[in-house]
Amino acid sequence: MSRWIKPDRLEPPVDPVDERAALDDRLEFQRTTLLLKCGGLKPEQLALRSVPPSRLSLLGLVRHLSAVEAWFHAYDEQPDHQFFWDYLPGSKNRSDNVDITRAADDLASYQASVARSRAAVAGRSLDDRSPGEDYTLRWIYLHMIEEYARHNGHADLLRERIDGETGE
């Protein structure tokens, strides 16, 4: 993979049909924003670190959010999402350990994780509790929107450092 593709992103409607549609639309907007921040970059650029001592990189954010999607995966009661996520078994900072030769795997992992999330909660009520937890699906949506928004702010700064691109 020479460069990551820059996806199209739709603005969420200003008048969603209901609460679930609003949450789905806003989360999809945030997910796509992350990929937009990475779009057009080469693996070497995606792995660039921010400012020492931070080990933060765009590729690390993609890896982190791939794993964070597991909040939704609990609803399908299947084994944890692993895919290509764990290149270093036992490592405590897995999203910090990026390998540019596996950037395509990381993108595939992220896309598979998001697809699994969508399928795991399709048709579920926002009031459904996460298996074995005290969180409702509504809370998880809100938490995930917050998580993405925070990390997309980091992605803005990382992208600007890499090539000067800002906005979105």
UniProtKB/TrEMBL annotation:
Domain of life: Bacteria
Family annotation (Pfam families): MST (PF04978)
InterPro entries, per database record: DinB/YfiT-like, MST-like
SUPFAM superfamilies found in the cross-reference section: DinB/YfiT-like putative metalloenzymes
Record-given protein name: DinB family protein
Species, as recorded: Paractinoplanes lichenicola
